Amino acid sequence: MERTQVGIVGAGPAGLLLAHLLHTEGIDAVVLEARSRQYVEQRVRAGVCEHTTVALLRDLGLAGRLDREGLPHEGFALRFDGADHRIDLAALTGKSITVYGQQEIVKDLIEARLATGHGIEFEAADVALHDLESESPRITWTDSSGVARELRCDVIAGCDGFHGISRQNIPTDLLTSYDHTYPFAWLGVLAQTPPSSEELIYARHERGFALHSMRSPEITRLYLQVDPGERLDDWSDARIWDELATRFTLDGGFTLREGPLLEKIITPLRSYVTETMRHGRLFLAGDAAHIVPATGAKGMNLAVADVRRLAPALVALLRKNDSAAADGYAEQCLSRVWRAEHFSYFMTTMLHRAPGADPFTDRLQLSQLRYVASSTAAATSLAENYVGLPFD
Ligand code: APR
Ligand code: PHB
């Protein structure tokens, strides 16, 4: 049987960064990933890095490409009632965010891991966890060559996202979770065209929310609020561009630059938190434990914040048999998680139009938007959450 100190399930930002943080402390880990390297490197996800995320990657020497290719943003626009209202992040908080696709971070972390001489078990099928309540839990799986493998660990980190198997290994009677669904989804597209604005635009329109973002000076990322039951087949490129143009309407004119669509995807919006982030020797981190609607741009940043706590907790546990930080792990993470949950819910409900929303709700939304756009106190509150609250 193979042996490691920390068995990590999932090679997303949480699993890969955890492996790196443990490596810098001399702790051995094995990373198992269900998909291929190519798949995880190409999977298009959100793209906003909080300043704390960027600072951590820089401290670790992992931000070379992020600093060269990432796009620093000092503000963004809230667009409603046909006008733009800029949230000046830099003036309000002294901080900025960096637009850099999550899969670019994943590429950088994979490269960093391979550079340490350690591999990643890609295409690991039938991953199963065993003996979690013992001091030597095990992981079994079938590797990419079809060989049955078994790994004995001191600890397992479940970093396998919302649909992973780790959380399912916590007995349901011990699992405390909170779930909220929204009556809409996002249709996201990647367009081969320069961005139509230098900054992100969060647009609230009576036909629904739209977001203008970007990946590079040549690639634009756009989202449309749609019904959760919509089918991609019903959204031709022409229909998508028409709807985007309508929702980004600006008094005085706005030209949306069109181009070939490289990717289209519909994702439901959901909020979920499990307060049980640990069961015996299994620790959950990132999307495996909580998800947020992308309107607040917090998902990847929360995953990074979790493993930033988990790594030193595991080091203390494995090296000194000191379980204090491991015992406090969930509670420590959850205060940041719930703040991000609230902020993401706030941004989502302020900007989306629920089907059949009554006129009262409409008025409340517009009142909230006008308040954020006109009060420095309200804008500062939004901005400090958006750039990321201090880590400690
Ligand atoms: N076995 C092994 N790997 C698995 C399994 C499994 N049974 N199930 C899922 N995985 C892998 C997925 O293929 C994925 O690569 O776990 C990884 C989880 O990565 P992410 O979903 O990126 O989750 P996380 O690392 O927590 O990062 C959170 O991802 O979904 C976005 O918006 C979210 O930005 C946030 C970020
Ligand atoms: C993105 O660029 O994909 C993006 C940006 C901001 C968000 C969500 C997604 O709030």
Description:
This protein has an eight-stranded mixed sheet with strand order 7-6-14-15-16-13-17-20. It has a five-stranded mixed sheet with strand order 3-2-12-19-18. The longest helix is centred in the C-terminal third of the chain and has 28 residues. A hairpin with a 2-residue loop joins strand 15 and strand 16. The chain is an alpha+beta fold and about 400 residues long. The structure holds adenosine-5-diphosphoribose and P-hydroxybenzoic acid. Adenosine-5-diphosphoribose binds next to helix 1 and helix 8.
| Beta-strand residue fraction | 25-35%
Output the radius of gyration: 21 Å
The percent of residues in helical segments reads 25-40%
Mean pLDDT: 97
Shape summary: globular
State the separation between the terminal residues, measured CA to CA.
40 Å
Structural class: alpha+beta
Distinct ligand kinds? adenosine-5-diphosphoribose, P-hydroxybenzoic acid
Low-confidence stretches: none
Q: Helical region count?
A: 11
Strand order of the largest sheet: 7-6-14-15-16-13-17-20
Largest sheet geometry: 8 strands, mixed
Instruction: Let me know the number of strands.
Output: 20
